[in-house]
Amino acid sequence: SMQLMHEASSAAGIASFHFLQPNQRVPGSKVFAKGEREIAIPERHGYDQPTRKGYPLLIEEGKRMRTLGFPFDDLTMVFKDVAEPLYIDGCCHVNARGNELMIREMARIIHERFEQGQQCPAFD
């Protein structure tokens, strides 16, 4: 679980970060490019219903974990204003540009946390 990973990392002097990746089935999370919706959300895909039911639960649990002080960040809206095609299949995989956008947001968050004093205790 995230709690155990966080505790183990902290005990070892390692900062930990946990991110919920974007998913095309989260409402309002992506402006789809022409033809992208058909690739990203194909009819009768096995991941469709579990994702539509599960992601709201993951988002809420992430908020709860954050209030408890765990390093959790929800990236589900990182593509909300991006109209260029990013999703390459009906699961959740993105192209190089999508990976770049996620990585930049993750780096921004990690940098921000270190600026706020979240450091690896072993290297203080």
Outline of the structure:
With 124 residues, the protein is mainly α.
* Rg, Cα atoms, Å: 16 Å
Oligomer: single chain
Low-confidence stretches: none
User: Distance between termini?
Assistant: 27 Å
Shape: globular
Main β-sheet, in a few words? 2 strands, parallel
Number of helices: 4
Structural class: mainly alpha
Strand order of the largest sheet: 1-2
Average residue pLDDT: 89
- Give the strand tally: 2
Q: Helical proportion? A: 40-55%
Strand content: under 5%
Q: Could you spell the SSE succession in H and E letters?
A: HEHHEH
Describe it:
By secondary structure, the protein is mainly α. Helix content is 44%, strand content 5%. The two termini are 27 Å apart.
Descriptors:
single chain, 124 residues, mainly alpha, two-stranded parallel sheet
How are the secondary structure elements laid out?
Elements (H helix, E strand, L loop, with lengths): L1 H10 L6 E3 L15 H5 L7 H20 L4 E3 L21 H20 L9
Parallel strand pairs: 1-2
